[in-house]
Amino acid sequence: MDAGWLEFCHPKFHWLVHLARELEHFGILLSCWVHERKHRMVKRYANMILNTLVFEKSVLSEVTCHHIAELRRPDKFDLSPKLIPPLKASSPALRNLLEMELDLPTGMTYESCNSARASQYEVVHQRDVVLFHSAAADSQEPLLCGEIWQFCRISGRGISRLAALISVWAKVEQNHDGSVMIVKISREDTRIAVLMDIRCALTHRRRPDGNAQIY
């Protein structure tokens, strides 16, 4: 903190600046990210096990069985853009918005969810901040930044589309090398993006002044 990085970097993220030095020193990066990513699934089984004499073995057995079952799913390695279950019927307000903005015929089926695969490299979730192209925008328009509200699938009458409802966060300023951008948190400008037009999720920090720092 004495180095003055707190204004530009979330405290937990500053460890990333040490990775290059550790790779050079050890020749390998030992990662615990998998454990961070899997902690909910491990807790799901660990919280129910009361026999502490073989606690570690029991947890490992349950987690291994869960993992094998996941690998057996027919769509496990399907990396094409898609919505991630569970899906539910979209609200009337969202349905009306989509019909009006996309000029869709009546009688279509609308389903919503909170997570989606945007590409083979990117899975995004509700409340993520992302870079994206608006569905109504010219392909030459710069990428927009915004917060995801909802994902939806529109189908019927020979039409099938995957889309995301995103509130745009307008850029306030950007530092000289482009590594940090300040944006205004807002829900006033809502756009619809084709799911495949979401480029990536962004690391960000919300500030008390109503802005957010994008890294």
List keywords for this structure.
globular, 2 domains, 4-stranded antiparallel sheet, alpha+beta, SH3 type barrels, single chain, 7-stranded antiparallel sheet, 14 strands
Write a concise synopsis of the structure shown.
By secondary structure, the chain is α+β, with helices and mostly antiparallel strands. It has helices at 19-26, 33-46, 55-71, 92-102, and strands at residues 82-84, 88-89, 109-113, 115-117, 123-125, 129-132, 144-156, 159-168, 170-174, 181-184, 190-194, 198-201, 204-206, 211-214. It contains 4 helices and 14 strands.
Describe it.
It contains four helices and 14 strands. Helix 2 (33-46) crosses helix 3. It has two domains: 11-71, no CATH class; 82-214, SH3 type barrels, CATH 2.30.30. It has 215 residues and is an alpha+beta fold.
Topology (SSEs and partners):
Elements: H1 19-26, H2 33-46, H3 55-71, E1 82-84, E2 88-89, H4 92-102, E3 109-113, E4 115-117, E5 123-125, E6 129-132, E7 144-156, E8 159-168, E9 170-174, E10 181-184, E11 190-194, E12 198-201, E13 204-206, E14 211-214
The percent range for helix content is 10-25%
The description of the largest β-sheet is: 7 strands, antiparallel
Put simply, the count of helices is 4
Radius of gyration: 21 Å
Going by helix content, strand content and strand pairing, the class is alpha+beta
The low-confidence runs, each spanning 5 or more residues with pLDDT under 50, are: none
Q: Proportion of β residues?
A: 25-35%
Overall average pLDDT: 86
> What is the count of structural domains?
2
Q: Which fold name corresponds to the CATH topology of the largest domain?
A: SH3 type barrels
| N→C terminal distance | 18 Å
Order of helices and strands: HHHEEHEEEEEEEEEEEE
